[in-house]
Structure of Ammonium transporter:
Amino acid sequence: MSMNFTGTPTGTGTGGNSLTTDLNQQFDLANMAWVGVAAAGVWIMVPGVGLLYSGMSRKKHALSLLWASMMTVSLVIFYWFFWGYSLAFSHTTRGNGFLGTLKFFGFKNVLGAPASVDSLPDILFAVYQGMFAAVTGALMLGGACERARLLPMMIFLFLWMTIVYSPLACWTWNAEGWLATLGSLDYAGGGPVHISSGHGALIYALILGKRNDPVAKPGMPKYKPHSVTSIVLGTVFLWFGWQFFNPGSAGNATIRAWYSAMNTNLAAAAGGLTWMFIDFFRFGGKWTTVGLCSGIISGLVGITPAAGFVPIWSSFIIGVVSGAGCNLATDLKNFLHIDDGLDVWALHGVGGSIGCVFTGIFAADYVNSTAGSYTAPIAGGWINHHWKQVGYQLAAMCSVIAWTVTCTAILLFSMNLVPFLRLRLKPEEEELGTDEAQIGEFTYHEDTLYIPEPVRSKNSVAPPMENIDDKIAQTVEEGGNSSTAESGVESGQPQNEK
């Protein structure tokens, strides 16, 4: 028996009564299917960030970075449901496009009305954009590598997403956002995702201070990655996810989505080759795997704000410039004396800024129009002789940096004044490693053979391994049959089974 729908979608609130109205008739089901699949593809980027960061760290901190990625996606999804989506993408804003309202608090009314991207219902757009928020948070926490306490990290992440990310997403992607109405172009997150996470990580690393390094005290600490394999796997996850991250940002399954997919792959390839060749000459003729992976990520970051706006040939240029620029930025850590051990700022802060500016140069009206009726026309960039576009892009870049740096610094300084929210591990905890000091578990096999559990009674406490011989001797004496006991011990069978 089919439903008897007689109502008409309202386009506001929940979109109508789902018992009397077919809310799906407003939307193309193929578009919804594609964006739903893309949301799942973007999710895989979060553990990809964890693998990448874990591989770049020292072994005694490796698990904490995997933990941070899974904690981030869990906490950010809650934040997104609680008020994050509402603050970023409510249908009305406050402060002339500065911040959304709490109309969608707790996902109230998030159902079948058209979202800011009107080809999608609110609920699907919320799912997709929630993955972007999770990726941003995971990237930003890289600035805390190897020295941050985990409880303050969680509290800071929730506050940072609320105070920093929500306004930036509103400015850039909400139809009423002030950067959107100004005319800046950001296809898939150069500003809200990469520039903000890169500069947030830079300030986090600056306020935490450099890692304790008894060998290289005069300079910045520098350690070899403990697992290049994890770096490669993390890069694989990220590149795979990026093929949903950018094409899904079209909001539909039009030619523009697939055009942006090719731009994404070409920029990644160009960035990877560029970084690898630069490292070949810098490091004695070695084709470094870490350099190749870093270059791939820099190219992906650089093309993100431009992917749906620029011709394919220009994505090669963006990839090359991003690879070279981010490679150079990794050396600025020594000049700045900021211990950003995972190069979050160099890859995402600098790469996102390069992509933002190059969007203003290469944006083409005909590329944007490949979305057909699903998109609004743009004037293009310099190749369309629209010279103001680079100015709009610079305004967006500078405003994102200023907001991120200022708010992040205030948040961290304020939290560090509260005793139980002290940001950094104690020196002895840092030397022990975040995994042992804060988690009690390890990425690799350690000396301890038991998972720590609470002691509930004396009977539940297993005898220490070093006293096992004494326990065997005691059992032999009490049983009065030493030969049987010895036989049982030697055969490895428990006494109650003999």
Notes: Residues 29-437 form one domain.
